[in-house]
Amino acid sequence: MEENHPNLTRIIEEELIDYRIRSRFYHPKYVKSLGLAGTERVLEFGSGGGSISRALAGALSPEGALTCVEISPYWIEKAKHRLKAFSNISYLLGDITRMALPTDHFDVVIVHFVLHDIEPAARVEIVSTLAQCLRPEGSLFIREPANPLHEMPLSEIRSLMRNAGLREIRTGCTRTWRRTWICGGTFKKSW
Ligand SMILES: C[S@@+](CC[C@H](N)C(=O)[O-])C[C@H]1O[C@@H](n2cnc3c(N)ncnc32)[C@H](O)[C@@H]1O
Q1: Cα(104) to centroid of ligand 1, in Å?
Q2: Quick one: which atom of ligand 1 is closest to the CA of 110?
Q3: Which of 19, 24, 51, 98 has the fewest beta carbons closer than 10 A?
Q4: How many domains does the chain have?
């Protein structure tokens, strides 16, 4: 089986919960809360099967553009198929730290439920790559689960962002109906 191919449990969970439920009923609300103007160049790191990309692409006008970066060929093909109606999405397949992304380019970077799945030692280089491709005064929005099995505490998010030169605008954690926590926030790149 190819590298980065998800297992069957993850495929079923993504199809039934992420794409059918979260993508339709929860993600549009989160994307609305970001206050996008619609004309931004947005980079989504770890876009998976497009569960949040759908709401992001829908929030952008024809002048805006969404770039989905995903390491798994399976997920990127899934997203392309699901989101073929959107003409404002482009897809980059590969490891984000091995891509020649433009410097100071994107107005917005989205990290949604990605870093917690990546081994802690690799997170620093990833966040530094994201900070580099963000334009000065551009915004990085992050949300990660913070439960005992998949831990990504807010303190780690804060220190990763600070070390990459991003300043904190707002952060916080919310409790889900399953009594787990989601932590995240907004960070900006200074001039
Ligand atoms: C848990 S999924 C989240 C998908 C989507 N953001 C969401 O919220 O539904 C995380 C995704 O990040 C991708 N990923 C992990 N490391 C990556 C890397 N270094 N470069 C690009 N994509 C990566 C994984 O393949 C996976 O599809």
Answers
A1: 22
A2: 6
A3: 98
A4: 1
Q: What is the pLDDT of residues 134-154, one digit of tens each?
A: 999 999 999 999 876 777 899
Distance 46 CA to ligand 1 centre (A): 3
Answer whether residue 1 is part of any domain. Answer: no
Residue 178 predicted with pLDDT over 90: no
Q: Does residue 39 form part of some domain?
A: yes
Establish if 28 belongs to a structural domain. Answer: yes
**Ligand 1 lined by 6 (C-beta under 6 Å):** no
The Cβ of residue 109 has, within 10 Å, a number of other Cβ atoms equal to 27
Question: Is any ligand 1 atom within 6 A of the Cβ of residue 59?
Answer: no
Is the residue at 113 inside a domain? yes
Cα separations (Å) of 100 from 79, 91, 107, 148, 190?
22, 14, 17, 35, 22
pLDDT at 80: 98
Q: Where residue 180 sits, what CATH number does that domain have?
A: 3.40.50.150
Give, using CA atoms, the residue closest to atom 15 of ligand 1: 46
Domain that holds residue 84: 8-189
pLDDT at 1 (0 to 100): 59
pLDDT at 56 over 90: yes
Among 23, 70, 99, residue to substitute to test ligand 1 (most atoms within 8 Å of Cβ): 70
pLDDT for residue 170 is more than 90: yes
